[in-house]
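Q: Got a minute? One more chain.
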Amino acid sequence: MLLRDGAAAPISLSRRDMKALEVSRGKQGQGKTGAALGMVAGGLVGLVVGSEAADRCRDEGSFLSGLCDMNTLGGLSVGLLAGGLAGGLLGSNIRVEQWQMVQLPLARLHAMASPGRAVLVFSVGF
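A: Always. Here it is, folded:
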């Protein structure tokens, strides 16, 4: 028997007609996925911006030119952090239905008792 949302009555299905069964586990936010994608995008942008700043620093011939590569590292770090935070916030607001596969048992064993007798039922699905 299967009861659908909003249905007036359950639906009967034979075991033979079922190939798979999934159960909804509700809607969940996608914060982790969003943060990961945001870090990748932000890191790439930060790396490009930081590399450009490092190139300008070297071209200026400053007495701190030995530290110019810190611009690249700084841009990458800021990009990773900002992208991860922005992606995590956006992803957590995107709710996606989560489904989980349920194993369909091949065999079942039922024990039933009534006054004066006990019954053991074994069934196998094909």
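A: The two ends are 17 Å apart (CA to CA).
Q: Perfect, thanks.
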